[in-house]
Amino acid sequence: MNPRQLEQYFDHFFKDVFIRFAQIGEVYAMVVSENDNNHLNGNVYVKFKDPDLAEQAVVLLNQEWFGGRPVHCELSPVSNFSDADCRAYETNTCTRGDKCNFMHVRRPTAELKRQLFKSQDKTILLQKLQKLTGDDQYGLQIRKGGVDAKLFIPEPVPIAISQQDPLPNEEPVDPTNDTNISSTAAVERLFAR
């Protein structure tokens, strides 16, 4: 396997694993170790935004298989991945080889990592919009047309908003006025803080 093929193979692996973890909850960080020793090689470390999700991941993933092999998942005491990185490996100067107990991190391409986290952010935003509108199908409608069906956000849906601080250059919302506002304005208010 040449270096380009190895990079593509690893990116595919990283994407599959990231997506599976993101189905459990919001992934804060994920690293894959490629040490020469057996006890670290191929280990995947994930830090969730919510620590309780790590416990849920252990229960769920210990019942699954990946690539024809059973998954073994456990909680790690490492809370900061950069503290566990082998600094010498980062500069191609690690001389400990298979005796090194710090993580030799294999990194995905920067573009893939950016796309995965951006996609996760989009999913979280969609979930917030669904909760805000009270419609669990909001944003999931598929518009027919052309060769491919595409995901789209439908026209603004009027929703009621409780009293909040107004956005700059905006009139305050009168809580006694039952007038609804568009979902676009609601999203702006939601993320204006």
From TrEMBL:
Domain RRM stretches: 1-78
GO CC field: U2AF complex
Keywords: Metal-binding, Repeat, RNA-binding, Zinc, Zinc-finger
Biological process annotations from GO: mRNA splicing, via spliceosome
GO molecular function: RNA binding; zinc ion binding
Statement: the UniProt record of this protein carries the keyword ATP-binding: no
ZnF C3H1-type span: 80-107
Residue stretches making up the C3H1-type domain: 80-107
Pfam families (alphabetical): RRM_1, zf-CCCH
Native organism taxonomy: Eukaryota, Fungi, Dikarya, Basidiomycota, Agaricomycotina
Origin superkingdom: Eukaryota
Protein name: Uncharacterized protein
InterPro entries named in the record: Nucleotide-bd_a/b_plait_sf, RBD_domain_sf, RRM_dom, RRM_euk-type, U2AF_small, Znf_CCCH
Region (Disordered): 162-184
Organism: Cerrena zonata
